[in-house]
Amino acid sequence: MSEETPSIRLPDPTRLVVSNSPHMRDKPTIKRIMFTVVAAMAPACVAAVLFFGVAAVQTLLLCVLSCVFAEEGWNKLVKRSSTWKDGSAILSGILLGMNLNAGTPWWVCLLGGALAMILGKQLYGGLGYNPFNPVLVARVGLLIGFPGIMTTWDKPAMGVMAVDGVTAATPLGLAPGETFVKDMLLGNVGGCLGETSAIALLIGGAILLWFKLIKWEVPLAFIGTVFVITGVAHLVNPEAFHSPFVHILTGGLLLGAFFMATDMVTSPMTRKGCWIFGFGCGLITSLIRLWGAYPEGVSFAILFMNALTPLIDRGTTSKPFGFATPVKGEA
Amino acid sequence: MITAIIAVGILGAVLGVVIGFVAKAFAVEVDERIEQVEELLPGANCGGCGYAGCADFAKGVVAQRATPDQCPVCSSEDVVAIADYLGISAEEKEKMVALVRCSGDIPNTVRSLYNGVRDCRSAVLVAGGAKGCDYGCLGFGSCAEACPFGAIEMRDGLAIVHKELCVGCENCVAACPKDLILMVPAAATTHVYCNSPEKGAAKRAVCKTACIACRKCVKASGEEDHMEIDGFLIRSNYENPPAAELVEAAACPTTALRVDTEHAKGAYQGASK
Amino acid sequence: MSDKPRKFKGGVHPNDSKALSAHKAIEAAPLLESYKVIMHQNIGAPPELVVKKGDAVKKGSLLAKAGGFVSVPLHSPTSGVVKAIDKVPGPTGISVPCIEITADGEDEWESPFEPIADWKNTDPAELKQRVWDAGVVGMGGAGFPAHVKLSPPEGKTIDTLILNGAECEPYLTADHRLMLERADDVALGCAIIARILGLETGVIGVENNKPDAIAALRDAAVKHGVTVQALPVNYPQGAEKQLIYAITGREVPVGKLPMDVGCVVQNVASATAIVDAVVKGVPSIERVTTVTGKPLVDPGNWLFRIGTPISTALELAGGITEQPAKLLLGGPMMGIAQSSLNVTVMKNTSGVLLIAQDEVSQYTSEPCIRCGRCVECCPMSILPATISQAVENKRFDWAEKLNVMACIECGSCSYSCPSHRPLNQHFKRAKVEIQAGLRKKG
Amino acid sequence: MAVLFANQERNKGYFIMLSEFLVITIGAILVNNFVLSKFLGICPFLGVSKKLDTALGMSGAVIFVMTLASLVSSLINQFLLVPMGLRYLQTLVFIVVIASLVQLVEIILQKLSAKLYDSLGIFLPLITTNCAVLGCVVLNAKSAPDSIQATWYGATIYGFCSALGFALALILFSSLREKLDLADVPKAFEGTAISLVTAGILAMAFLGFSGLV
Predict the structure, then answer these.
(1) pLDDT-derived band of residue A312, with 50, 70 and 90 as boundaries?
(2) Is pLDDT of A92 > 50?
(3) Judged by CB atoms within 8 Å, which residues 34-53 of C form the interface with A?
(4) I need a surface site. Which of B214, B221, C268, D118 has the fewest CB within 10 A?
(5) pLDDT digit string (tens) for B20-63?
């Protein structure tokens, strides 16, 4: 007892923390999640640099820097605590870079970063509150503002560390019938930095799925819907419409399906909601690609579905445990 | 020209008949007096009257379920105006203000380390909150948030009522999970800022400004009966409230006895241990 | 009843850390000089005091009698004198009244009732009365009077008895040791409760991570005509509603009790307390409690009498090697943090746990990033993220619409939240506010 | 079935009509959305979008008024104003029709759902001056004489679909605003400011549909 063993050390009650249960926390933090996604982007970044050379490095760096500085500048301006270290601004920067083409002028990159971080995110109160994917807000904003710049793509030149100034159209803009499947898998086609190498994007997507950072329902429903709709269109009229494989492997579909549509903040939380979300993205993308004025519809589709997300979440809440069975012998 | 007049005229007549018919079929009675009373009310929707906002209160007043003076915000002239409008008599009532019966700000109290939602009603669900004293102000400002008139200031983790801004709506009373807030006559100026029924030593262990029931103030008030003794706690007798001079005469050793305006200015320091 | 238990939706898998104390046999704590028995140890009405200051009491003497149907009597843990009716810090942090007993060291026994050896031929009503007289409460944590659960109201038929031996809380091993060392009594308790309810048999549900306890129970169960059901390891497997679902496939409707789906759930520790009360004539004055945590020198399981201060429990475990961040009563998922060592062991104190500084950092709440992890793991299938945002904005009407009342406060959502949001505290608050609102409405 | 396919010529006519309806529907709801690409009816769009429930009520009211106004105005225009050479009275007559319809909705709503009536408040009578309703009616009256919109059924469908487009924008926007209610928006941007930003981004998203029809 206490008299026999006075040397026993007991906790100092004044240094005990009181807080609500639970008193254990799982390991993942926002920072960890963000940097895992950054790591998942790495293969696509490497592929982009391989194909587009120094210009790709420049675009990516500019975007990341502008995002980080825009976020920090805003936080300073409205006197909020610094948030760039959580990694979300860096991730947005990389994603924005992947959505631009290699030869994008420096000022467009900077403007894009500011649009994404301030208009798309900080005006709403920062991470977690933005209803739209900030990167897509920036991309669509730039696309509407500078359609010329945003739709001229450099032709990739494997191994050449400088852009030769030759431009190429995205395969979606070319006449159907030509097949690029092998080139597209590797990434040897025109397009934005992140739109070219399907294999690199698939590796990244696999990483995200492995760490359970994205819900598999979204990319599956998204890509599946595009495949089915464009497939039917291609079967009906192969002259006018590309084969579904072209649709899947080209443009920002893989990038969008794995990295943009799955953004946690702006996609539904429920599994059922994710199916609907993915299906909606796929449907709108296909509509715009097949009949719309823009050759590419992924950004618009995701942005539109972002707006639908609160409604989807509301409509797909599953019945709480204990609501499923009626009470026996009671009205 | 004629055709135009006739066409528009017929059109108007037809539409008028339809609307008239529908208006009759779907008629709803509205008492105009309700709107008038609502105009006269302050429109703060503070709920201090016990009704859900001013519109609801106006309905109650017109239906004679409530009396105009139940509105804590209305000045007496407003009350008379409403009463005159409805042709009922108005009674004068004494103005009441809120009193936070605690003086334990951060420098004067022992606190436990608390990690969680910074809101009194949430904090009190976890280990009784963040202060050593079970009865004291938690200092997360739920009352200040509840006050529609900005009369409560949070200073050093203690809620302080600015009497001149308080209209007596009692929203803060319901907001405090520790039942610390008492409505007292605005005329009373001197209060004991403590609400702990614990023994003196137990109180002193956690707070430097607790009332330790030394009864100096009771003695100083002499025969006048200004103070009430309630176990280990002394209160002002609000039937016969003490004057500000009592504070000096009593020389409260813990400064729990205070004049409200001076308290709001932060003029008191806790007793050194 | 299927052989394979169902898996309830959601749940988390925290590191269980049970190895610290799972191998330590239950030791009886030595007799102390004084005990501070907290008066109100059950959910429901507080008991009424029957002793006064200066009274001499024996071990087992009645200290307070039940203050209503949903209330249980309180008995003295040892012989001695009632020194004072005092106050001690209660488990929720607020000081509560207690009866302080100075032990005379004799530990003289006075049974308040006779043992019932032939329980098989005793009237179930008498057995139930005995459970009440002995002051048995739900010893898993809630402290709900056991006899109330055994008294289904008119018109409700009970067809399943479940003994809860899941012990899904990390760190805790008290039930594990109890099931291992007193397997026979656990099975016997199950049989006695079954008789009170008029049932033939009962099921003992045990999580798969206690294979030795399952083996021991299986042998004993055959003897007493009850069955043992191994359950998958998934927190909160031991929550009443999830346990009933796992074993019977029935969902207890929100706001209803297990009785409403024909089930009664008792903790295994309550079952042994009932055996003590019926067969040995001993009231509920002691319990097995795990004293554990990484900062402790020698964690283990002890048989404490009620009223033992936590400081004594920590001394028995050899004291600490480093200052812990938190002291908890109960497990790390649902336990209550304490800021005083004067809290005493109660009938429902299943564990005394120290959490090391490096195990739980002081967290700051960050905005929700809508990752959906809380939605995935919520065993009640509600939307924790949305509800917490509603509560943050004081929109309790909204929270109610989102079924916050279904929340069982298991803490899985807060555990899994990467933004470290105090979700559970928000829900607790919302439930209190909504209930207060309902009371106001009448 | 055989009868249906017997008259090739007539079937072709149906098909063309059907595709024309489709064009009107998609055009009015998505591509030329009244709120987000024509920027008509912004007043209730911002005014009653704070809560989803009121937005739903407002949507219902607008759908009712816009469909009926299109039908009635088209009939009056086609069979009264045009034959009598009173085209110059169009605006006047349309406003009278809309005002009466709004009055009807108001009276009926006050009786049937006083709560919704209260929450819509001033915006209910303001449907009268809602440029979306008048715009829709005027667009019908101004459409090419051989287009489907010039017929009374085409006009009604156009009115109904335009109202649906308005409802879609309003409901989307209100669900977003409910979410914004919980957001930690900087003080300077709280309320209408952030709502307008959101409306802008929503309009950008709708821009993607351009060229669909």
Answers:
(1) very high
(2) yes
(3) none
(4) D118
(5) 888 888 877 777 788 888 888 887 777 777 777 788 888 888 88
SS3 C229: strand
Radius of gyration for the alpha carbons in chain C, expressed in angstroms and rounded: 21
**What is the mean pLDDT of the segment spanning A239-252?**
81
pLDDT at C442 over 70: no
Q: What is the pLDDT of residues C397-422, one digit of tens each?
A: 888 888 898 899 999 999 999 988 88
Contact A319 C380 (CB under 8 A): no
Of C95, C339, C429, the CB nearest to B125: C429
> How far is residue C45 from each of residues A283, B224, C63, C77, C99, measured CA to CA in Å?
61, 43, 16, 21, 17
Domains and CATH numbers, chain B: 32-86 (1.10.15.40), 96-265 (3.30.70.20)
Domain that holds residue C184: 117-280
Inform me whether the C-beta atom of residue D182 falls under 8 Å from chain C C-beta atoms. Answer: yes
Residue C221 lies in a domain: yes
Of A68-72, C9-13, C52-56, C361-365, give the range with the top mean pLDDT: A68-72
Model confidence at A40, pLDDT cuts 50, 70, 90, reads: very high
B8 contacts on D by Cβ (under 8 Å)? 89, 92-93, 96
**Residue range B136-165: average pLDDT?**
88
CA of residue A86 relative to chain centroid, distance: 17
Residues of C in contact with A25 (CB under 8 A): 360, 363, 414-415, 417, 420
Q: Is D146 on the interface with C (CB under 8 A)?
A: no
Residue C177 in contact with residue C301, Cβ under 8 Å?
Answer: yes
ipTM associated with this complex: 0.82
Tell me if D111 and B15 make a contact (CB, 8 A cut-off): no
- Our CA-based measurement puts residue A122 at a distance from the nearest CA of chain D, in whole angstroms, of 8
The SS3 assignment for C344 reads strand
Structure token pair of residue C26? 């239950």
Tell me if chain B has a CB within 8 Å of the CB of D111. Answer: yes
- Give pLDDT tens digits for D9-31: 767 777 777 888 888 888 888 88
pLDDT digits (tens, 9 = 90+) for D63-93: 988 998 999 899 988 888 888 888 888 888 8
Cβ–Cβ of D182/C393 closer than 8 Å? yes
Q: Residues D117-147: pLDDT tens digits?
A: 877 777 777 777 778 888 999 988 888 877 8
The answer, for A182 touching chain B at a CB cutoff of 8 Å, is no
Q: What is the mean pLDDT of residues C363-379?
A: 87
Domains, chain A, with CATH or none: 30-315 (1.10.3430)
Enumerate the residues of chain D whose CB falls inside 8 A of the CB of residue A124. 180, 183, 185, 194
Nearest CA in chain B to D86: B4
pLDDT for position A161:
37
Identity at D104, one-letter amino acid code: L
Q: Is C52 domain-assigned?
A: no
D210 part of contact set with chain A, CB < 8 Å? yes
Boundary (domain end) residue, out of C248, C280, C312? C280
Question: Which of C237, C260, C280 is the endpoint of a domain?
Answer: C280
**Which of A48, A167, A162, A69 lies closest to A111, judged by CA?**
A69
Chain D interface test: which of B2, B8, B54 (most D C-beta within 10 Å): B8
Chain C interface, best mutation among A133, A267, A269, A318, by max C CB count within 10 A: A269
